[in-house]
Automatic annotation (TrEMBL):
Coiled coil: none annotated. It comes from Lactuca sativa. This is glucan endo-1,3-beta-D-glucosidase. Its EC number is 3.2.1.39. Belongs to the glycosyl hydrolase 17 family. Keywords: Glycosidase, Hydrolase, Signal.
Length: 381
């Protein structure tokens, strides 16, 4: 009996170790540029079974928002770049929120509107000029509707907005973008909203695989790098990128804005010229990232600031353009099977509706299956 108890205790510990990572500092991006994905109702059940409590989407699709009603999963919804010009009009901004946010708030936990995605740094300077006015009018509409304490406004940037990223203490923004970034930072400070950045160490490795150590970008044991200005040691590139963004923000006079990683991930497949895009590397990156987030790590320069990350992405998306890697960032294939081992098993994905007695959590049998899956994973390592 004692042996059985010890085994069950081990299983429970392993289960909490691997499933718990999704509830500590890790959310997931639910992209849907594909024609073969499961319906939102099944995705909702999947995410609840994995204890994922935070999700970021790129629009405000009512089918998705309705599917997550009553789940208590926190949602970041997106306002596409194509809306920025018209959202400068306060009346249109308020109408959009009244149609796409307000009707769902009583059941679906919408906490943020991400206004535009990677607008700065592109070729469209006209679009860049629309960004902050749209953010301001969207925030003003939230104030008018009494929702500004419940829903915050931000926008997600590509790491390409940085001119310098190493050493991290010398991080700076591109000079030609400061005219846009400075007032955006002022806005964040005024309304107390975070600065979103999409950071992918994969792209640094892909661009220079001969000089960027693979272990450094995958969170694997390595000699690391030292910032000569602070003497701080970095054992992975993502933390260095985060601190570089903080330094760039500080250089513009702000120390009161939190940086959140709105996207990070690693592709499991790529073209011949896409170095490092393999199933093995993708699994290593995301497993190591999630384990570090579970440990509550902070960056070297911000030891008291928890890291907040959204992994990209939940599914492979077969209709995305660009190189092969763009269609292969998913943790899951559209059929519900895992692309690589994350410490959970694909067969915990529900394929049928739960009965009313099961809607508030996994059944005892599901728990046992999950625990056994974790044990199998542990033994296979």
């Amino acid at each position: 009996m004692a042996a059985i108890f010890r085994t069950l205790l081990l299983l429970l510990t392993l289960s909490e170790s691997f499933i718990g990572v999704f509830t500590i500092g890790v959310g997931v991006n639910y992209g849907r540029i594909a024609n073969n994905l499961p319906p939102p109702s099944q995705v909702s059940t999947l995410l609840r079974s994995l204890n994922i409590t935070r999700v970021k989407v790129y629009d405000a699709d009512p089918q998705v928002l309705q599917a997550f009603a009553g789940t208590n999963i926190e949602f970041i919804i997106g306002l596409g770049n194509e809306y920025l010009q018209r959202m400068r009009d306060p009346q249109q901004a308020q109408t959009w929120i009244q149609q796409n946010v307000q009707p769902y708030l009583s059941q679906t936990k919408i906490t943020c509107i991400n206004v535009g995605n990677e607008v700065l740094g592109g070729q469209d300077t006209q679009l860049a000029s629309y960004l902050l006015p749209a953010m301001k009018t969207m925030y003003g509409a939230l104030v008018n509707l009494g929702l500004s304490k419940q829903v915050y406004i931000t926008t997600a940037h590509s790491l390409q907005i940085l001119a310098t990223s190493f050493p991290p203490s010398q991080g700076t923004f591109q000079e030609n973008l400061i005219q846009y970034i400075q007032p955006i930072l002022n806005f964040h400070a005024q309304v107390d909203s975070p600065f979103f950045i999409n950071a992918y160490p994969y792209f640094a490795y892909k661009g220079d695989p001969n000089n960027v150590p693979l272990e450094y970008v995958l969170f694997e044991p390595n000699s690391g790098s030292i910032d000569p200005h602070t003497n701080l040691k970095y054992d992975n590139m993502l933390y260095a990128q985060i601190d570089a963004v903080y330094s760039a923000i500080k250089a513009l006079g702000h120390t009161d804005i939190e940086v959140k990683i709105s996207e990070t991930g690693w592709p499991s497949k790529g073209d011949e010229n896409e170095a490092g895009a393999t199933v093995q590397n993708a699994g290593i990156y995301n497993r190591n990232l999630m384990q570090r987030m579970q440990q509550g790590e902070s960056t070297p320069a911000r030891p008291s600031q928890p890291i907040d990350i959204y992994v990209f992405a939940l599914f492979n998306e077969n209709q995305k353009g660009g190189p092969t890697s763009e269609r292969n960032f998913g943790l899951y294939y559209p059929d519900g099977s895992l692309v690589y081992n994350l410490g959970v098993k694909s067969y915990i994905l529900p394929r049928i509706d739960y009965s009313s007695s099961m809607k508030n959590g996994l059944s005892i049998l599901s728990h046992l299956v999950l625990l056994m899956g974790s044990l199998v994973y542990f033994l296979e390592r």
